[in-house]
Task: structure prediction
Amino acid sequence: MKSLRFLGGGIVVGLLLSIATLSLSQDRPHGPEFRAAGEALMCQCGCGATIATCAMERCHSAEPIREEIWERLQNGDSVASIVETFKERYGLIILSAPPASGFHLTAWIVPFVVLLIGAFATRHVLSSWTRHGEAMQPAVVTSISEAQRARIEKELQDLS
Result:
């Protein structure tokens, strides 16, 4: 009897928790559109995170932007129009990635160009090292005479 009461109480508590979780999840912004808009915009508090990932509690930058994103998504705005609105308001500094057009295209291209130049330079240096290594002849080892060996032994004894 006691175990049935415990089981019934556990079920009631579980149902209450699941209802509370559902009601909270409906009030809180989430979803792929919200996440996409939040990832496209940088938090302006200086944390270096996106709006979606800023972990500062009650952030003066992320919270109002998140609320505006949520309201605009509820009104049916697209992610692109939301990002464009914030870009017009804050400038390019709000974007988490530079636009892939005009001069900003260099921010996408230059890292790959530098990587290729570095790879070719490394290949050139390594190939020159291997070519020089083949051209070098090994040192010829000659034996020393007994007089030289005795002199070395004597000098070593004098050092210690």
Observations:
- DSSP finds six helices and no strands in the chain.
- The two ends are 92 Å apart (CA to CA).
